[in-house]
Amino acid sequence: MKKKEALYDLIKSLTQNEKRFFKIYASRHTIGEKNNYVKLFESIDKQSSYDEQKIRKNNNSVSGHFSAEKNYLYNLILECLDSYHKDSSIDRQISKYINVARVLAEKKLDEQSVKIIEKAKKLSEEYNRFENIISLTALQKNTGFNRDTITNEELGNYYSEIFLSLHQLNIKLEFNKIHDELLLQRRRMGPVKNAEELKDLKKFYNQPYFRHASSINSFDANIFYLLAKIEYSRILRDNKKCRTYCLKLLSLFHLHVNRIADNINQYIYLLNVFIVEGLYQGRREEADASLERLISIPSLTGEKTITNDVKVKLFEVYYTCKTDIAIKFRDYESALPDIPTIERELEKMEGLMTPSFNLVLKSNIACVYFGAGQYKQSLKWCNKIMNDPPEYRQDIFYIVQMLYLLIHFELGNQLILPSLMKSTYRNLYKRQRVYQFENIFLKYLRLFLRAETKKDQKLLFIQFREDLVPLIDNKFENLVFTDIDIMGWIDKRIKL
Predict the structure, then answer these.
(1) 194-229 pLDDT, tens per residue?
(2) Among 62, 66, 154, 218, which is 20 to 30 Å from 171 by CA?
(3) At which of 84, 105, 139 does a domain end?
């Protein structure tokens, strides 16, 4: 990002409520200059793309020292956001208390400082912010030493409290670490693809913290423990266990609704997994109900918790799940009306979305169009991915590669198909991804191109179907059947 566009990007990231608050805030903090700064703010906000020359022309009063005015406005907006969001999350509230307690202690207003510290500690204990308890207790201890009022008993109590918080924080971080490692593995590689990967995954399961939940002593530790179990089950493609852990975590959240706001990303992720895993078991009504729960999060947690980052997550999860539902139930027409909206939002969110979600959503759209028989549109979305091959989620890129070949076959691009098939095989071989399905698939594509009559091709499709049937229940081979209706496509070809 160019430095000169930083102010533009910051203004464009603001919500309508934040913009209204800024104009009020600016009028209070820029005496005699408020109209100029608000005018500059509004000029930039109106632009659909950054045009500095136009802004200078429309703001003559600041054009002589424009860089300084932009810098002042930038910092003023940051101060405004800090003020606007000061109580919007538990972490911000505790941080405010810690800063106030320090100021009061420095002024030797010990009793007032202690009252604030106790408030902050209470919140920190309730919301498992053990790191804050450590710093707050250290502040109390240091104040006692500075005033020569500390006793041996108090000193012992302070350190007991610090060590206990360290122990609780360590347990929370151990489960957090395990979850993050599993999440990273799945995003990079996808589910297990062979017996060797399965063996390595089971070694990971033998970690003491992962196998036993007896050390869990906080809400947050329980969240990350269950999230780690969910990730493990997803990589293993054990839908039954994954659903069991999802239900446990949903139950935990619904028993502690007040904890959703400070764990909003985990809650969104949980609903995403719950929907996807439920689809494998044909639970469409449950999936639709969870989609409604997803879009009702803002009313549940409050507007200030819905930051730009959360809005992006809600968008990517909602539409990924919605297209997943259409694909899993072969109800492609239900998703088609959403695609123009998705395309517009994807352009607005360029660079903001999680790359793996961006990839999955584009792949889903390609699969939806293919299932609906709109092959040119499907090719357009495949090209968006093929033109910039990802280094993550190779399982999804693999599906796109298979779909890409099918589309070119459907469009009659027989001249380029042989070279595409060769490059696809080389790519799969390089990534050690050539298994039974790929060999069978590429073999029959070559045979289809050589078939002299429709009758010959029909016989090949019948044999193709018979060869694929044994792979449908093989969890190392059946990934493609979920997203691409290969069997339905073959059946259509047989009926031609």
Answers:
(1) 777 777 777 777 777 666 666 787 899 999 999 999
(2) 154
(3) 84
Candidate from 2-6, 343-347, 356-360, 385-389 with smallest mean pLDDT: 2-6
Digit-coded pLDDT (tens) for 110-156: 889 889 999 999 999 999 999 999 989 988 888 888 878 888 998 99
pLDDT tens per residue, range 357-380: 899 999 999 999 999 999 999 999
Max Cα-Cα span within the chain: 98
CA angle (81, 86, 87) in 5-degree steps:
135
CA distances 210 to 164, 217, 265, 445, Å, are 21, 14, 22, 45
Query: Whole-model pTM?
Result: 0.79
Number of domains into which the chain is organized: 2
Last residue of a domain, one of 52, 84, 116: 84
Cα-Cα-Cα-Cα torsion 419, 424, 427, 433, nearest 10 degrees, comes to: -150
326 in a domain, yes or no? no
Whole-number Å distance between alpha carbons of 343 and 380: 12
> Which has the closest alpha carbon to 202: 232, 237, 225, 172?
232
Q: Cα separation of 93 and 33, whole Å?
A: 31
> Helices 394-410 and 436-450, interaxial angle, to 10°?
10
Say how far apart CA 352 and CA 231 lie, in whole Å: 24
Amino acid at 96: K
The length of the chain, given as a count of residues: 496
State how far the Cα of 412 lies from the Cα of 428, in Å rounded to an integer.
24
Roughly what angle, to the nearest 10 degrees, separates helices 152-189 and 394-410? 20
Is there a domain that residue 419 lies in?
A: yes
**65 lies in some domain:** yes
> Is 324 inside any structural domain?
no
Q: Can you state the percent helix, strand and coil of the chain, rounding each to 5?
A: 80, 0, 20
Burial class of 168 by CB neighbour count within 10 A (0 to 12, 13 to 18, 19+): buried
Domain that holds residue 69: 3-84
